[in-house]
Give the backbone structure.
Amino acid sequence: MSTFVVFDLEFTSWPGALEHDWSKPGQLREIVQIGALRLADDHSVVEEYETLVRPVANPRLSAYFTDLTGIDQESVDRKGLPPAEALGDFLGFCRGQSVLSYGNDMVVLGENVGWARLRGEQVESGFLDARFSNVRPWLNTVAPVTAPVNVGRLWEVLGLPRPAAGNEHSALFDCYSFAAALSWLRDAGTALPEGFR
């Protein structure tokens, strides 16, 4: 059975960070949560992946980030993995797969791998064993109603049932929303292009 992965990241943020592209001093897009689903050809879920990550440059989460995601400081301090460990584990989950995001999350992933390596930490797995693609431009073209929304609201603008427990800006919930949109498109006769698989 062939499979592919959809993933989503939640990373440190502050009021206005998105609008200013995280350009203010000290505002780095440090990953705090990784969510992913391994999907079969029929888009059924084969495996889930979810982990919290402890940011290094900004170890204290902003109130803005916590309000947006529901991820609190205590959970990250207690359950969060060191970045190099979490990144290596996730890249291992992606090994040999096509890995799809709704947006440029692979850029943020690359930034975080780079920072870990600059700190002298070893990230066990690398990018070369997986094929990362941003499918947002394609999805927005074939389903224009999706263009203005984030990944966690895809299910809603397509009029689909809530795909899982939780809310948008939770990485795993966002993956279920993404998978629901891909399944809806497939069922409507619009399959993922071969280049993404």
User: Anything to note?
Assistant: The mean pLDDT is 95. The radius of gyration is 16 Å. The CA atoms of residues 186 and 192 lie 7 Å apart. Residues 3-134 form a domain with the Nucleotidyltransferase; domain 5 fold (CATH 3.30.420.10).
